[in-house]
Specification:
Largest interface: A-B, 78 and 97 residues
Oligomer: heterotrimer
Structural class of chain A: alpha/beta
Mean pLDDT of chain A: 95
Number of helices of chain B: 22
Strand order of the largest sheet of chain A: 1-12-7-4
Largest sheet of chain A: 4 strands, parallel
CATH superfamily of chain A: NagB/RpiA/CoA transferase-like
Shape of chain B: globular
Shape of chain A: globular
CATH topology of the domain at 69-302 in chain B: Rossmann fold
CATH class of the domain at 69-302 in chain B: Alpha Beta
Strand content of chain B: 5-15%
Largest sheet of chain B: 6 strands, parallel
Number of strands of chain A: 12
CATH architecture of the domain at 69-302 in chain B: 3-Layer(aba) Sandwich
Number of domains of chain A: 1
Chains: A alpha/beta, B alpha/beta, C alpha/beta
Strand order of the largest sheet of chain B: 1-10-7-4-2-3
Number of helices of chain A: 7
Helix content of chain A: 25-40%
Strand content of chain A: 15-25%
Order of helices and strands of chain A: HHHEHEHEHEEEEEHEEEE
CATH topology of chain A: Rossmann fold
Number of strands of chain B: 10
Helix content of chain B: 40-55%
CATH class of chain A: Alpha Beta
Distance between the termini of chain B: 71 Å
Radius of gyration of chain B: 25 Å
Chain lengths: 219, 475, 267
């Protein structure tokens, strides 16, 4: 008999499972009928409370370039052939060096860790309740983009803010198929492991800059 | 793993706890940390009705998952396998380490970057890898500090909670080449970040724990603030996740309530910085992520708890640490005194299944049964009832023993005393006589009453019992 | 366990008769608290019956992991209350044992379980009874004083009677109730815990005494004798070692405190 069979054998006991709670009903009952501006306000407040930098804009490329200059960035990592990345590229010209994530990490791991100043990714959606960005990294915007560079810029279409995590999952029907990696990001990396003193920039980005786009990410 | 053979676990525990209560600096560290964490948690649960509703949901999800555990584990395995994640089963800590070592050797790993995982502590992972010549290194800031100091975590969420920043400043200055003494926490974290970033890029294998394993989608969920967990599960070519078999939940919809209960109860955060949901290894065309993902499902005594109707509730735990944050005993003796990977109230009820009651029974008695842990447990584990049950098991006679190590705490003297006590208080005639003698002899009551009078004045019986006074008054 | 249970409890109208279950500690060590409970109830026009067969609720053995020994003792108590009157217990801990744990203790025997459940339903901790059933309100005849209230953990978390104890003290016009830091934390007694792990117990009770002293309270009041003996015993030992007399942190059972203040007897 295998370990698997022995373990499962020990766990098989008679008896009936207690009834499952109505999770959907619980969250439904707590839904607020919010307008988009109200959701934006909530999202902003929570994000800012955990040291994220939040901007609302109708012209994100200009704003991003301006912030990049003020932060003294040498370069920005963008996705491989993404519409918003190319849109920025068409405007950045000589203002900011853009690095495209066009090769697998294996060939440039050390450069990614040591030389990239910041990255730009698209957030799939967000959660107002907890001040959370939802990212589904993929081949064009890989997982390490939102993790390794010290500054992470995230674009979010303001019409994609859900009330809570449960609503995000249901509305987007995650159950139908999960990606390789789904991420919830709520602020810059942090730790309180030294005497409960909060410090930002533990291992992930020290700064999270959220650009809330009022007119879509491509206009 | 570091399983000490205890000659007398009760004396060992007494010695460790005595040392701990007599260390004023450490007492102050724990007191400060407990006050901080309690206040943070309170801040999250201002709405008592919401808390009650969410706890009921959390408890029901966990109870239901445990009732269907074998079916859910099979479903989890089926869906993970379909997603390309390889599932392994380990009955013991040694088996789990052997499986991980097999993977590491096959891929020629020289080192393993570790995300925070209490299960890896439980199985003595680092030690097992070191014995095989593989460097398994901690990357969570707290774990890194503890590892640097040659210690073990003293708390399941905040491993270095017993240390002050001064101690950590001295440790960094001593152990990290080129680092000057600084008590600036931001500077200390920058140092840790710098050291560990250098190691992430060169890590061959990443190891992590699992907070929730979702059966219906084959998804491993990880909760963290620092980003080291994401590093370990994204940057190296191979990711090995280790978890106890109890961590499975049936549906994706069960994750939001449990995640909310976990972070709010643990550190008083409405959410952590990262929630990392992994369902596949790197797919064709994807540019990062591990090419292999493995999940090692570990029993290590959990099935013993599962088999018992009452003790099964132990496995409801989502490892938030709120029970220890609110425990008056933990606050006084800290995590190390328990001598087990999991300290505090949850440690006292889960460790007997992993290590045997013979090695751990004193922990069941190291509680005033005040119930603070039960009050804050986000999944409503009846911890005090379980402690009482374990006390009973620890003292059980052979005919009644049902757990590994049952009866190890049995003493002929204690058994006789309680039998005598029971006789006095269940036979009215005997009670009347003894209590009459005690009140008559009140002047003779000893000034020294053993452990009681070590720090208290002696108890003095009243010259007349209440029943005598009532009889006199009504006659 | 949990505070929900106490708040959800339905209370009967004021009865003509009650049983007094005084607890073993009061019978042997603090009979005045029992007499004052009797006084408080009789003043309200209630006939108080004291079954002479009562000994101990069985909690010491139950908590120590000796259920058989606890059951034998609890069984002796089960037969004492044949009339359907409320059973008043001037201890949150013992009341919790009878109210919450008797049904668990007798779970394996249907007949006994039925009796235990019936009894459990009419067991009331003294202060919850005074507040919710009697609607206690008596003029305060005492002089101004400052006290701190300590509620036992079982009273707080299994009976919810920290609220009723506080409510009773707040009816006394001349009493200033001060609140110690970490009021909800255990005093470190824990029955046999105090004997088994005296150093840990000492650390906890010393902190409790320090927080009570810091309030400047003249005395500590509690509805549980176990905690009172622990706290005041520790404080008295500190006084003794420092050569101070009389005790700087005396304690009093809430029944005695209420009775003395409302009947004009000086404390």
């Amino acid at each position: 008999m295998s370990a698997r069979e022995r373990i499962l054998g020990r766990l098989r006991t008679p008896g009936t499972a207690p009834e499952m709670p109505d999770v959907a009903g619980w969250y439904r009952a707590r839904q607020r009928n919010e307008t988009t501006p109200e959701r934006i306000t909530r999202l902003r407040a929570v994000l800012e409370s955990v040291h994220a930098e939040v901007h609302e804009t109708t012209d994100w490329p200009a704003l991003l370039l301006q912030i990049a200059t003020s932060k003294g960035l040498n370069n920005l990592l963008i996705g491989d052939n993404t519409p918003h990345g190319e849109h920025l590229a068409s405007l950045a010209a000589d203002k900011l060096t853009l690095i495209r994530y066009s090769e697998p990490i294996d060939g440039w791991r050390n450069r990614l860790f040591d030389e990239v100043d910041a990255s730009l990714t698209l957030a799939r959606s967000a959660i107002a309740e907890t001040g959370t960005l939802i990212l589904w990294p993929d081949a064009s915007e890989p997982r390490t983009m939102s993790l390794v560079p010290p500054i992470h810029f995230a674009l979010l279409d303001v019409n994609k803010i859900h009330a809570d995590f449960d609503a995000a999952m249901r509305t987007e029907n995650w159950q139908a198929g999960m990606p390789t990696n789904a991420l919830l990001i709520s602020g810059p990396s942090k730790t309180a492991d030294i005497q409960q003193t909060l410090a930002y920039g533990a291992h992930g980005p020290r700064e999270l800059v959220v650009l809330l786009c009022h007119t879509g990410v491509l206009s | 793993m570091s399983q000490i053979i205890h000659f007398d676990p009760d004396q060992d525990f007494k010695a460790r706890s005595r040392t701990a209560v007599n260390d004023p600096a450490q007492r102050a560290n724990f007191r400060g940390a407990m006050d901080f964490l309690q206040a943070k948690r309170r801040g999250q649960f201002g709405d008592q009705d919401e808390l009650a509703g969410l706890r009921a949901i959390g408890a029901a999800i966990r109870q239901n998952s445990l009732a269907k555990l074998p079916e859910l584990l099979e479903l989890l395995e089926k869906n993970l396998t379909a997603n390309g994640i390889q599932v392994h089963w380990a009955e013991t800590a040694a088996d789990a380490n052997a499986i991980a070592l097999g993977i590491a050797r096959r891929v020629g790993a020289r080192n393993i970057a570790k995300g925070k995982s209490m299960v890896s502590e439980e199985i003595g992972f680092n030690h097992a890898m070191a014995d095989a010549g593989i460097d398994a290194f901690e990357t969570d800031m707290g774990e890194y500090i503890v590892e640097l100091a040659g210690e073990k975590p003293s708390h399941i969420i905040m491993p270095a909670i017993h240390k002050t920043k001064q101690q950590i400043a001295a440790l960094f200055a001593e152990k990290i080449p080129g680092v000057a003494y600084t008590e600036d926490v931001d500077a200390l974290i920058r140092i840790g970040r710098q050291v560990l970033r250098g190691k992430f890029a060169g890590a061959d294998v990443g190891l992590s724990g699992v907070n929730f394993a979702v059966a219906e989608t084959g998804t491993l969920c990880l909760v963290e603030n620092e980003g080291n967990g994401r590093m370990c599960t994204t940057v190296p070519d191979v990711h090995i996740a280790v978890t106890g078999i109890e961590k499975v939940v049936e549906k994706l919809e069960h994750v939001p309530p449990l995640y909310s209960l976990l972070t709010r109860s643990a550190t008083g955060q409405s959410i952590t910085t990262y929630f990392n949901m992994i369902s596949r290894p790197r797919q064709e065309g994807e540019k990062d992520g591990p090419r292999e993902v493995h999940l090692i499902l570990i029993d290590n005594g959990r099935s013993q708890a599962h088999a018992d109707e009452q003790l099964r509730a132990t496995l409801q735990c989502i490892r938030c640490g709120a029970c220890m944050n609110h425990c008056p005993v933990y606050a006084r003796i800290g995590g190390h005194a328990y001598g087990t990977t999991y300290p505090g109230p949850i440690g006292a009820i889960v460790s007997p299944h992993m290590l045997g009651l013979n090695a751990t029974y004193p922990l069941a008695f190291a509680s005033t049964l005040c119930g603070a842990c039960v009050e804050v447990c986000p999944v409503k584990i009846p911890i005090t009832d379980i402690l009482i049950r374990l006390r009973n098991e620890a003292q059980a006679g052979e005919e009644q023993a049902s757990l590994r190590g049952s009866g190890a705490g049995r003493s002929a003297l204690a058994t006789a005393i309680w039998k005598g006590w029971s006789l006095i208080y269940s036979r009215l005639g005997i009670y009347r006589l003894t209590s009459w003698f005690i009140s008559r002899g009140h002047k003779l009551s000893p000034v020294s009453q053993g452990a009681w009078t070590k720090c208290r004045t002696a108890l003095k019986p009243a010259p007349k019992r209440l029943r005598d006074l009532i009889r006199e008054r009504r006659s | 366990m949990g505070q929900e249970s106490a708040r959800d409890r339905a209370y009967p109208p004021k009865p003509g008769d009650v049983y007094l279950y005084s607890t073993c500690l009061i019978d042997q060590f603090s009979p005045e608290a029992g007499l004052d409970t009797l006084n408080l109830l009789e003043r309200e026009g209630i006939r108080v019956h004291f079954p002479d067969g009562q000994t101990c609720c069985g909690q010491p053995a139950y908590n120590s992991g000796y259920p058989d020994e606890a059951r034998a003792v609890a069984l002796q108590q089960l037969s004492l209350f044949s009339q359907p009157w409320p059973v008043i217990v001037p201890s949150g801990s013992c009341a919790a044992m009878m109210h919450h744990h008797y049904p668990k203790l007798f779970a394996s025997d249907q007949a006994l379980l039925a009796r235990a459940t019936e009894l459990a339903a009419r067991v009331f901790e003294l202060t919850e009874f005074l507040v919710h059933v009697i609607n206690f309100k008596q003029p305060d005849r005492g002089s101004a004083c400052t006290v701190a209230l300590h509620t036992s953990c079982h009273a707080r978390r299994e009976m919810g009677s920290h609220e009723t104890s506080a409510a009773l003290l707040s009816t006394l016009d001349n009493v200033d109730v001060v609140v110690q830091d970490r009021i909800e934390e255990c005093c470190g007694f824990g029955g046999t815990f105090a004997i088994r792990y005296p150093e840990i117990s000492e650390a906890i009770v010393s902190d409790k005494v320090a927080s009570l002293r810091a309030t400047g309270a003249e005395r500590v009041v509690s509805a549980d004798c176990g905690c009172l003996f622990n706290i005041t015993g520790r404080a008295a030992k500190q006084d003794e070692l420092a050569g101070i007399a009389p005790p700087t942190l005396p304690g009093e059972h809430i029944a005695s405190f209420l009775w003395k203040r409302t009947s004009g007897i000086p404390s």
